[in-house]
Task: inverse folding
């Protein structure tokens, strides 16, 4: 939740100085101390000014935020705008993201990120930080991602440009997909999770690469993206007249080599998973449908951007 700037400044002043009058901000170039890659709130240091500090050279591609920590206050007006006393990202932020072949290795919708500023000392005494947040979490896998810093946009309150590198690069890990493997019975309404290591596509491109089989019989299904987690896609049964998996049946799921992530990176090796359905409910083996899961007989099956995706049931088997 965005907090009015006057509240942030007041909180910073109270925390640092109590009720007394505080000194003016010190002169000098803001020193970039460290950069942290966050995945769902868990930070990993990817750059540090200290040569002996531990830094990760490879990070999960599912980045949700990147923090750039400085040793003093910055001129927040150069980083973000203020509309009705609320911070708003600038159209041309002082931190941007790039990678090789970005014109061709790009997601739909295209990668975009907001850059904002926090004047509170969350990373140590006197520190402040700018942070970059993708609008949809995730970066291309197996890629050298570079963050470009504009010293004239990252300055002290007196306009002194930052002291630090103007480009910081980190490598993202490989593209992987995880399918459930469990001997625990799952309900016949089970929405099978496909867990991506980065952002998943949101269109029909996945359908030809996914297969669900009862023995050698292909079953019809649809795909839906999770409404809150960009790495999750669910396989949903769509048997004609009974939208459930056959009861008391072991089902096998295959993700083919070449299955793409949101940025078009292909899966290098095929992946398989399996689960067994409960004896309660379901359509029965003969009612599940025998049409090819990728054919037009298997319902209309596209991923709908408009329809919310339900989470898998609590009693469903978990992904490995």
Result:
């Amino acid at each position: 939740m965005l907090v009015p700037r006057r509240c942030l400044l007041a909180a910073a002043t109270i925390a640092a100085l109590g009720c007394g009058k505080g000194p003016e901000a010190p002169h000098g170039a803001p020193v970039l101390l460290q950069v942290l890659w966050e995945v769902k709130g868990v930070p990993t240091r990817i750059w540090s000014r200290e040569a002996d500090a531990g830094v990760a050279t490879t990070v999960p591609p599912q980045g949700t935020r990147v923090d750039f920590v400085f040793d003093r206050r910055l001129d927040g007006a150069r980083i973000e705008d203020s509309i009705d006393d609320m911070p708003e990202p600038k159209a041309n932020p002082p931190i941007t993201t790039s990678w090789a072949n970005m014109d061709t290795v790009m997601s739909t919708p295209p990668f975009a990120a907001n850059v904002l500023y926090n004047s509170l000392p969350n990373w140590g005494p006197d520190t402040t930080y700018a942070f970059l947040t993708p609008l949809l979490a995730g970066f291309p896998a197996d890629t050298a991602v570079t963050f470009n810093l504009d010293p004239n946009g990252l300055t002290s309150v007196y306009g002194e440009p930052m002291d630090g590198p103007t480009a910081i690069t980190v490598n993202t890990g490989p593209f992987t997909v995880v399918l459930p493997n469990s001997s625990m019975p799952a309900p016949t309404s089970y929405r099978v999770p496909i867990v991506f290591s980065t952002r998943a596509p949101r269109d029909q491109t996945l359908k030809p690469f996914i297969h669900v089989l009862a023995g050698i019989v292909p079953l019809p299904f649809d795909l839906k993206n999770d409404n809150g987690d960009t790495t999750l896609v669910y396989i949903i049964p769509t048997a004609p007249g009974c939208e459930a998996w056959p009861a008391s049946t072991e089902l096998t799921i295959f993700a083919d080599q070449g299955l793409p992530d949101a940025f078009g990176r292909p899966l290098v090796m095929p992946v398989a998973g399996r689960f067994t359905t409960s004896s309660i409910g379901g359509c029965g083996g003969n009612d599940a449908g025998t049409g090819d899961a990728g054919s037009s007989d298997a319902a209309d099956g596209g991923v709908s951007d408009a329809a919310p995706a339900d989470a898998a049931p609590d009693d469903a088997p978990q992904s490995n």
